[in-house]
Specification:
Bound molecules: flavin mononucleotide
CATH topology: Rossmann fold
Order of helices and strands: EHEEEHHEHHEEHEH
Number of domains: 1
Radius of gyration: 15 Å
Distance between the termini: 11 Å
CATH architecture: 3-Layer(aba) Sandwich
Helix content: 40-55%
CATH class: Alpha Beta
Number of strands: 8
CATH superfamily: Flavodoxin domain
C-alpha cells in the first residue's frame, strides 16, 4: 500500500500535521510519501491520497488548491481523505468544523472518504502582515497530536479494509 500525504503550508504547522499523519500510516504498514503539494509530479503510482491545507482567510493554502485542481480527474477514482488546519483556539478539538467551500466541492468531486479540521499554530515571532498582528493576540499551538493520530488511525483502518 503506497500512500501520498500532500500538504499546503506556509508557516510549517500543516506540514507538521502531514508528518504526524504519515507516521501513523507508516506504523500501520503503509509505505508513505509526505510532500509539499506543489512538488508532486504524479499520483498514479499511489493507492490512496491524503491532502491537507492550511486555512488562510477561509481558503485552503494555494498549493493544496493547485494540487486538487491539477489532479482532479485522477482523484475522482482513488481513495481520498482531506484535512484542514486551522483555528487558533480549541474549537477544532471541541467540535467538528466543516470544510470551507472549495474543500466541500473537492470532497464531492473526489468522493472523498473523509475530512477533518484540526487546530492550527502561529508562533509568537510570525513575520509579515497580518500574521505578526495575529500572533500578538493568538500565538500558540492548537494542533492536538492525539486527535491527528486518532484520525490517521481511522484512515489506516479504512484503507486496509479496502
Ligand atoms: C493571515 C492569516 C489568516 C488566517 N485565516 C484563517 C482562517 O480563515 N481560518 C482558520 O481556521 N485559520 C486561519 N488562520 C490560522 C492558520 O490557518 C494557522 O496559523 C495554521 O496553522 C497555519 O498553517 P501553516 O503553519 O501550515 O501555514 C490564519 C492565519 C493567518 C496568519
Amino acid at each position: 500500500m503506497h500512500v501520498l500525504v500532500a500538504y499546503g503550508s506556509k508557516m510549517g504547522g500543516t506540514k507538521g500535521i502531514a508528518e504526524m499523519v504519515g507516521a501513523e500510516l507508516e506504523s500501520s504498514g503503509a509505505h508513505v510519501d509526505v510532500m509539499p503539494a506543489r512538488t508532486v509530479r504524479e499520483i498514479a503510482s499511489y493507492d490512496a491520497i491524503v491532502v491537507g491545507g492550511a486555512l488562510y482567510s477561509t481558503r485552503w493554502h494555494k498549493d493544496a488548491r493547485w494540487f486538487v485542481k491539477r489532479y482532479k480527474r485522477a482523484l475522482a477514482s482513488m481513495p481520498v481523505w482531506l484535512f484542514s488546519s486551522g483555528p487558533l483556539d480549541d474549537s477544532a478539538s471541541k467540535q467538528d468544523i466543516p470544510p470551507v467551500r472549495l474543500v466541500k466541492n473537492v470532497m464531492r468531486q473526489s468522493h472523498a472518504r473523509g475530512h477533518v479540521t484540526f487546530g492550527g499554530r502561529i508562533s509568537a515571532d510570525a513575520k509579515g502582515f497580518p500574521a505578526a498582528a495575529m500572533a500578538k493576540e493568538k500565538a500558540g499551538d492548537w494542533r492536538d497530536p492525539d486527535r491527528v493520530r486518532m484520525w490517521a488511525k481511522q484512515v489506516a483502518e479504512d484503507l486496509h479494509a479496502g
